[in-house]
Amino acid sequence: MMTMLGAATQTFNLVAMRTFRWALFLCVLPAVVAAQSAPMAGAQRATRMELAARLQQLDGLIASTGKADQRSKLQAEQTAIRARLENGDFKVGDRFVMTVRFDSVRVDTASVRDSLVVSVLNLPDLRLQGVLRSELDEKLNQHVARFIRNASVRSNVLTRIAILGAVRAPGFYYASPDRPASDILMLAGGPAPEANLGRFELRRGTTTLIDGKKSRELLESGRTLEQLDVQSGDEFRIPVKRKVNWQLIIQLFFIASSLFFAVFQFLQWYYGREE
């Protein structure tokens, strides 16, 4: 009897342990998959080494992914990273703010011109072909050191975004990447009276990155442009509140009532004539 009881207890413990392991595995697996398939945090300032490591990670994920849609997303990210490594992060029209320290402190804004060149102070132009954002400070310091001794340069790359829809002054604006998304509307003069502030959209070309359902949560969280991976050329679109046109509804009601009474009187006349 004791032997049977001991065997039953041992079997129960074994089954319970296996069940616990499977439960733990199922709980941890989604987080692991999400961590592997999600883009790197702060990818806009990623170093060349970090991007190369991400490429290797993507190679493994693409090889092990069976779903076609997931594989296409990973391949698109892979293509984008390779383009960054080859061509750099800067495009014509990009701007960044420089703080130059030598015998005094000077703050200047530089714009990337044709052929991806930029003017730094009154020095010869600097070419930014193939330069990543994470490499900009080093590139600027090397360039300035050729002409000015004991000078240091720090930069802040601005993000060019379009703010459209129900705002007072729609258009293109430059914003610092560390600026909260909730402050973006103030660049365009603030929201218009008819603006629906809880349902903005973030678009990149024809793709909607953030729709109205997620916008309220993101605004309340205080996340910055960089945390949302907002890139130059993206669009913030503020929709208009839906309004009930009571005047139109009242007019339609009276029209429908008039038609009803007209039909009712016609039927009364028609059947009264037959009698």
Give the structure's gist in a few sentences.
The protein is an alpha+beta fold. The chain folds into 3 domains: 2-87, no CATH class; 95-157; 159-238, Phosphatidylinositol 3-kinase Catalytic Subunit, Chain A, domain 1 (Ubiquitin-like (UB roll)). It has helices at 2-37, 48-64, 68-87, 136-145, 212-221, 246-274, and strands at residues 95-101, 105-111, 117-118, 126-127, 152-157, 159-165, 171-175, 201-204, 207-210, 235-238.
Describe this structure in words.
With 275 residues, the protein is an alpha+beta fold. The chain folds into 3 domains: 86 residues, no CATH class; 63 residues; 80 residues, Ubiquitin-like (UB roll). Helices cover 44% and strands 17% of the residues. The strands form 3 sheets. The chain has a 5-stranded mixed sheet. A hairpin with a 3-residue loop joins strand 1 and strand 2. Helix 2 runs antiparallel to helix 3. The longest helix has 36 residues. The N and C termini lie far apart (101 Å). The N terminus is likely disordered.
- Tell me the number of strands: 10
Helix-strand makeup class = alpha+beta
- Give the SSE order as H and E letters: HHHEEEEHEEEEEHEH
Q: Supply Rg.
A: 31 Å
Strand content: 15-25%
Helix count equals 6
Q: For this entry, what is the oligomeric state of its chains? A: single chain
Low-confidence runs (pLDDT<50, min 5 residues)? 1-9, 14-42
User: End-to-end span in angstroms?
Assistant: 101 Å
Q: Tell me about the biggest sheet?
A: 5 strands, mixed
Mean pLDDT: 80
How many discrete domains?
3
Shape: elongated
- Fraction of residues in H or I helices: 40-55%
Spatially, the strands of the biggest sheet line up as 7-6-10-8-9
